[in-house]
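User: Second chain of the day. Same drill as before.
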Amino acid sequence: MVQIYPNLNNKYIQLEGEKIDNLLKKPRRVLYKISSVFPFDLFPNELVINENQVNVIKRRFFLSEDIETVLIKDIQLVVVETAPFFASLDIEILKPLSKSIVIDYLWVDEALKARRIIQGLRAVEKEGIDIANQPVNELLKKLEIIGKVRYNT
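Assistant: Same format as last time:
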């Protein structure tokens, strides 16, 4: 037989409720948004980067779309493949199954900026830094600096 201790159980429920309230208070700001280039992609896909997640909206046909959401902490690697005019962005996901999301026909500079921002967010997440109170413009500049590829020469 399981006994429930009213005081402990109520305290637990109260703490969990506070956690949920804190999650609701966190801003869901869009930091960066890009889409694939029309007419090379007849139904342009979008990449939307928030503070704690990346949303990939893939359009297949008129009025139809698939939305994949990946938490920043679940992103293992971000790869940009460039060509003279366009780039593709490949987001490799760590959990639950190792898979990747690819968006083609992005402008090269936009794809590289998105990669730097995501890599910066990964570093911030790993360090446990709270970025909720940072102004968006300043935050983007800092994330890009943090997310730049550094070469040892």
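The beta strands are 30-35, 46-50, 53-61, 64-71, 75-82, 86-93, 99-107.

User: Great, on to the next one.
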